[in-house]
Write a structure and sequence with these properties.
The protein is mainly alpha-helical and about 300 residues long. The protein is built from 14 helices and three strands. Helix 6 crosses helix 11.
């Protein structure tokens, strides 16, 4: 119970003091629950844990096929948690202080071609779920929102007359993004004709609902988009954010100013957005070698 209480205290700290979004707090909680399970399994105590125990946990994550990038994200979460425990004077030393995170090579985002996007979004509209899925995917590709932002959208976050979307991104930063006509058409179709069918006994103002009438989860969205990609025989390596990456790259390919793309993606640093220039250049290089007579 001790660990669980400290996680709850940490959640309150993130929400009230740090003003983090619910999606960010959920990610931290997921990470800490996994860490808690490991500690219980190995009879470890929060007060007495040592550097070597942390190293054992890193090995445990690696043995469970976790990528270096994901391990680093877990490490970042634990560092924040232990700093909080020190601030609260629950601990006096940080067991992670001299533990190095694994090195990893940053890979370029996986991006669909425009033809693959068309194939993915070509959904047979046969029931309320297919209309919901069509609206979700069209909206994600049209706006480039993160998965967490997509599933946390509420009815009032859409301006149906001005065709704009309002979302709260990382660090609780608000941004307004235009919605294209195509995505807006399917969004209105879903909201006006099918969303009510998904609402059960308790009313909710979340935009996209599961078959129990509650907010669709990130995990459900991951499963949905992965299954669709397999069904459509899309060979490009796929992740839940592939549509977001494709949105940015296709805008860049069409000549959109990178600063505008940065604002729409909600990146605090232009350097983060510039990764898409490398993706675009890579495509240019491949096209040259594939289609130039002497390439």
């Amino acid at each position: 119970m001790q660990f669980e209480q400290k996680i709850r205290d940490f959640q309150n700290y993130l929400l009230i003091d740090k003003k983090y979004s619910n999606a960010t707090i959920e990610s931290y909680t997921y990470c800490l629950n996994k860490y808690c399970t490991f500690m219980k399994k190995n009879n470890l105590n929060l007060k007495t844990i040592k550097k070597n125990d942390i190293k054992d946990y890193l090995k445990y994550l690696k043995d469970n096929k976790m990528s270096p990038k994901t391990i680093n994200q877990n490490m970042s979460c634990l560092r924040s948690f232990y700093k909080f425990l020190i601030i609260e004077k629950y601990l006096t030393t940080d067991p992670l202080e001299y533990v190095e995170a694994p090195k990893f090579r940053k890979s370029l985002p996986k991006v669909l071609s425009k033809e693959e996007v068309d194939k993915l979004l070509d959904i047979d509209l046969i029931n309320k779920y297919s209309y919901r899925n069509k609206a979700m995917l069209e909206l994600m590709y049209a706006t480039g929102v993160r998965v967490s932002e997509l599933v946390n959208l509420k009815i009032h976050d859409i301006d149906y007359d001005m065709e704009l979307l309002r979302t709260m991104g990382k660090g609780n930063k608000e941004r307004i993004i235009p919605i294209g006509e195509y995505a807006m058409y399917y969004l209105k179709l879903y909201v006006n004709n099918f969303r009510e069918e998904l609402i059960k006994k308790n009313y909710t103002d979340y935009l996209f609902l599961n078959n129990h009438g509650k907010k669709i989860s990130r995990q459900s969205f991951y499963k949905l988009i992965k299954e669709l990609a397999i069904k459509k025989n899309i060979k490009t390596e796929f992740s839940p954010h592939t549509l977001r990456h494709s949105f940015a790259t296709h805008l860049l390919d069409s000549g959109t100013d990178i600063k505008s793309i940065q604002e729409m993606l909600g990146h605090s640093s232009l350097q983060t957005t510039q990764i898409y220039t490398h993706v675009s250049n890579k495509k240019l290089e491949n096209d040259y070698h594939n289609f130039h007579p002497h390439g």
